[in-house]
Design brief:
The chain is built from 7 helices and 11 strands. Helix 1 crosses helix 5.
Length: 251
């Protein structure tokens, strides 16, 4: 006689009252860049969202995250805008073979709230910051057509890895509305402009009214600093310092 192991490996643990009402679900996960985590953290802070649940699983690395003076579970779920917005955030990488169980359990839990749409954020690493910033969309044909009217360009091609990709795949199976927003991110320099680009697109698509003044100020300051550095570098290249000879060194 075979006894089936019915122990649930992954489950969402609700910590507070859940009041989601057809929410937009935004996923922020560690990936090739940190733009997804930074963008969702900024939204959580600006909209004063609060944690209502976390994902419990033997497949998630047993670590704790200490950020902003708080000790936190690494896989958290937040609520905001009176239940109209949900953010799912995970700051630790999860092994590829474990993604199916976690994404299936999470989407099964989200599904009961009749989500308006799930959107994952991701960054494409580049050596230098692009001269023009764009958000690129990965979605079905009808959604692509709809959002093109808002100035969101379609990605020519993309493969979404990690938790974000697993969630999108599960949404396809469940026929749950889902998209991904991508932007280029400098892999060599601080790049708050990439975060600003994604948040502006989220505001445009979902009318979230996330204040971006602080980000815009940071971006402006960074651009000014980089321009100053480049100007000094160019001047040093056009007017190189004379080489020191033994006579000039010792008088």
């Amino acid at each position: 006689m075979t006894v089936e192991n019915t122990e649930q490996i992954s489950e969402v643990v609700e910590m507070d009252k859940i009041n989601f009402d057809k929410p937009v679900v935004i996923g922020g996960f560690v990936g090739q860049t940190m733009v997804s985590i930074i963008a969702t953290s900024y939204i959580i802070s600006q909209l004063e969202m609060h944690q209502v649940a976390h994902m419990k699983s033997k497949l998630i690395p047993p670590v704790a995250v200490f950020v902003g003076g708080k000790l936190r579970h690494p896989f958290r779920i937040y609520s905001g805008l009176n239940g109209k917005l949900m953010i799912v955030q995970c700051e630790v990488p999860i092994k590829e073979e474990n993604l199916y169980d976690i994404s299936e359990s999470l989407i099964n839990w989200i599904e009961k709230f009749s989500p308006k749409e799930l959107v994952t954020l991701d960054g494409v690493p580049t050596q230098e910051p692009p001269e023009e910033r764009h958000t690129y969309l990965v979605a079905g044909s009808e959604r692509l057509k709809d959002l093109s009217k808002k100035g969101i360009a379609s990605a020519e091609s993309a493969v979404i890895f990690g938790i974000g990709g697993a969630l999108l795949n599960e949404c396809i199976i469940k026929k749950m509305p889902a998209i991904s927003l991508l932007t280029q991110v400098s892999s060599t320099l601080p790049d708050p402009d990439s975060v600003l680009t994604l948040i502006k697109s989220l505001n445009e698509i979902y009318d979230l009214k996330i204040q971006t003044g602080l980000l815009e100020k940071t971006v402006t300051q960074l651009h000014d600093e980089l321009e100053k550095v480049m100007k000094e570098y160019n001047e040093s290249q056009s007017n190189p310092a004379p080489k020191k000879t033994p006579e000039s060194m010792y008088g």
